[in-house]
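Sequence, structure tokens reproduced for absentees:
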Amino acid sequence: MSSVHYLDAGIYTVPDVARLVRATQAQVHGWVEGHPGSKAQPIVLGEYERLGWRATLSFKNLIEALFIRCFASAGFTIQQIRTMAEEARRFFDDPHPFARDVAFKTDGTSIFAEFWTRSALDHPQLYNLRNHNLAIYEIMQPFIREPPEYGEDGYARLWRPRREAAPHVVLNPLRAFGQPIMESSGVPVQTLLDALRAEEGNYRKVARWYEVTEDEVREAERYEKATHETVH
């Protein structure tokens, strides 16, 4: 298990992750804890020691869950995803490949990892995680609607989880423990929402309290609505 710290790696509970990636809590539990009854191993390797009986996840784990949710939505079974995750860890020699700056694409049958090599700088290679073969490059549409942004270390460092509804709400493991904040001010979204409820919807007063614009307060409200959409 990695020696990471909450202050620079983010901290999330299973319900947090489920809400953010639009999955059920049961699904996320299965991804991070496996299924003891069937001896199925976890797909996501947690970076933290457990806090009591609760699984606590990092920002990398959150992004991994996002990709697993997208793979499942594309029609792959959990066993297929688990097998391909194990192959991705082996191929990239990394415990968290789904949090790396690697473009994962699908043709509906397999998942491909797109990467560059020194000998092929004109276009990337595609590695088939299902049959362990390099594939002939062809354009396949990425199936993730809200991709993360990556840092210089090659790992996801910022995510706009509801980009269309709330483009200025970000998750950054270096700020506010990775919880949703307004990008420019750093004010936690939940703080604005709690104040808005306390002030019975007075956007102007809440904006003045926290020195943000009324548009930011309204965006926080849109973010909450988008985040609580029904999970399918």
User: Anything to note?
Assistant: Helices lie at 6-9, 14-21, 25-33, 59-73, 78-92, 189-198, 203-210, 214-227. The CA atoms of residues 105 and 142 lie 5 Å apart.
